[in-house]
Amino acid sequence: MAYTEFYPHAFTDVNGQPQGLAIDVARRLVGATGRELEFLPTADPGVMMDMIVSGEADMTATLGLTQDRLAIARATRPFGSFRTVLFARKDGTRRTLEDFHGSRIGVVTGSLTVRFAAGIPSAEVVEYPSADARVMALLTGDIDATIATADSFAKRLRQIGSDIFVEPIEPPLGQTPYGFFVSSASGDLLDSLNAQIEAQLTPEVLDQIRTSWFGQPTRLPEHDYILWGSIAGLIVLTIAIGALFSSRRNRRRATSLLTENAENRLLVDALDGVDSAIAIFDKEMHAVHWNKGFVRAMPKMVDALSKGAHLRSLIAASYTNGTIDQGMSAAEAEDFADSIVQRLADGEAQNRIVYAGDGRIFDATDFAIGEDHFASVRVDVTKLYKQAEIIQTQKSELEAANERLALFATIAAHDLKAPLVQQALLMDFIEEDIAGLGYELPEEIREHFNMLTNLSGKMKRLIQDLLDHSRSAVPPEQFEDVDLNARLPDILDMVGLPGGFRVELETQTPIVRVDPVAFDTVVRNLVSNAVKHHDRDEGVIMIRGKEADGVAVFEFEDDGPGIPEQYQRSIFEPFKRLSSKVEGTGLGLSFIHRTALEWGGSVQVHCPAERGSIFTLLIPTVAVARPLAAE
User: Fold this and answer.
1) Residue 535: predicted pLDDT
2) Helix 131-139 with 226-244: angle, nearest 10 deg
């Protein structure tokens, strides 16, 4: 089961275990069918759909049953729905949907919220990588409103103590039923799940499960993503504290006031319980309060804070006492601090990345709180930056590999063309020599000459086609209707089957709309691989085709030695070869995998018997765009 972080429908808890409403329901239904669940965390809902289409996952967590998705994958009967609502801060003056025309609207990248945002006239849509990042943007005023699933978003707001600052704008923008999507390669799993949904998920059971996840809010963060929601809550809490301090000039009087009010004390305790560093400054930018997270993150600054130091001196000191490692001189640090404070006084929030002397990396934000206070927030983003470095390194390695592939294709094409040209010339010379001697070749030999000439021409065209294909993918608008039944003889001519092998087309195969050059190459590689890796001098490759649920299914079954299960995924990686005894570059199956994905399909292999392998190629029979993902 593939799932992504969408609290509380599906998420990973502090022990690394999947939890949530969708996880509970899946465990209940799948367990009743006698199967076991393996959970596969993914980056976003779009990736979940890709895994279902390719057969990499058998089912997804709860997803909206949209027409886009239902066009490419099967789904269970719905057992709930996402109610999509526009949320805005209560301190604003906008109270109807019409008030938000032309506003900045936050959405989660790739989610259904993108579609609903398009329905708000003249809206400036701002995309965020996660639901929690969007919460902070709403609470800090970076966006005017956000579109979200009502129950999940309200739960998150309650959890971070921010629901009192945000309200839904009625009426809702839409309602989408949800269920589980199931891979077409998963046998009778869909029917089994539907039967269990009908048998088990009575209204009473569903109400009990929903209440357990949406009923009473919890104050404990369940997983890493809630960190961002907690930060957003901190900022709002900071605003509340700033309002309490509006008439106080120093820390002593503020502390005295807090002790008189137990509720205000709870706000301060909440700030102290978070690792993020937060400091509050009065109208003159002198320190009046800071949380324990600031003490832990920047201990060298605590003494100056206790003395009510000015924000300017604190920033400058952080760049000279080793707290921040930027290599500034004292004069440069003072000039930099002056510029920050001046822009802050002019009403401009300041954001920058700072590198601590101990190797940590902080996202630093300074902003005004109302008219009389300012706040400084420092969030440790070291882990995120390390991950970004890893991604950049992998990106560079991938680009280098692609460059090597392009160079390989160019060199291979050039080196293959030369002997073919020479071969064609030799054929002409031989015919001229025979004619000069006055010989008349028998009809059979002349047919062989013609066959050699034709094959040389096909080979030259093939090399040029492959070279062109390696340089750039053919766009969908240039695809053609391709019929394997008609093209197979020419494909097999290029394969050059050994005498002991034969290929049988067991059924009429469906017509698909793809790049014909790439299609021929895919089929040729599948057939030639079956021959090259066969452990006997003779064998049979069976090709079958059918269409099911808008997908063309091609099966290539051989009677060779089979593929060990531990290698059945890795064989599709570039340069992966299972045997050094077989000639080849290890690029054939990688090309097939990449090409199938470009068509919106997939390729997979399984070995159901003691001998033999079945490669299954799935290709949509219509052009398929990447579907929108739901929260």
Assistant:
1) 87
2) 10
Classify burial at 346, counting beta carbons within 10 Å of its beta carbon; exposed 0-12, middle 13-18, buried 19 or more. exposed
Backbone φ and ψ for 115, nearest 5 degrees, come out as -65, -45
CA–CA dist 576, 571 (Å, integer): 6
Q: 178 falls in which pLDDT band (50, 70, 90)?
A: very high
Q: Contact 586/576 with Cβ under 8 angstroms?
A: yes
Distance CA 328, CA 340 (A): 15
What pLDDT does residue 273 have?
59
- How far is residue 546 from each of residues 278, 603, 620, measured CA to CA in Å? 63, 15, 12
Helix 189-200 and helix 21-32, axial crossing angle in degrees, nearest 10: 110
One-letter amino acid of 448: H
Determine contact, residues 603/588, Cβ cutoff 8 Å.
Answer: no
* Maximum separation of any 2 CA atoms in the chain, in Å: 120
Task: Look at residue 261 in the predicted model and tell me its pLDDT.
Answer: 41
Amino acid at 529: N
Q: Which two structure tokens, joined as six digits, stand for 519?
A: 């299609």
pLDDT at 553 over 90: yes
Q: Is the pLDDT of residue 232 over 70?
A: no
Going by C-beta distance under 8 Å and a sequence separation of 6 or more, which residues neighbour residue 348?
A: none
Percent of the chain at pLDDT exceeding 70: 81
Give yes or no for a cis peptide into 574 (omega within 30° of 0): no
Contact criterion met (CB below 8 Å) for 621 and 549: no
Q: How far does CA 146 lie from the centroid of its chain?
A: 21
Predicted local confidence at residue 484, as pLDDT? 94
